[in-house]
Amino acid sequence: MDANDPKVTRKIRKYIMRIDRSLCIGAATCVALAPKAWVLDKEAKAVILDSSDQESDEALLSAAKGCPVAAITIIDNETGKQVFP
Ligand code: SF4
């Protein structure tokens, strides 16, 4: 999947959220913490949903923090700084 595909890299308000699918082990913690933002695809790896903007910034961040392999990166869209990990 292309790195710019909205399923793996997406701007959501003040965040740019990105997943490294090569790291994802399908633990689905992100799905449990932000179910409108994340779903497992048929490869059992997480992809970003179109409804991801319905999750709060806090939920998006906690989903990233909850990932056991830190596959989700959050970048501040205004400063360009990495918020997590
Ligand atoms: S929590 Fe991490 S490892 Fe689990 S499905 Fe989400 S991105 Fe993948």
TrEMBL record:
Organism from which the protein derives: Candidatus Gottesmanbacteria bacterium GW2011_GWB1_44_11c
InterPro entries named among the record's database cross-references: Fe-S_cluster_ET
GO MF term (any one): metal ion binding
Keyword Magnesium recorded: no
Record-given protein name: Ferredoxin
Keywords: Electron transport, Iron, Iron-sulfur, Metal-binding, Transport
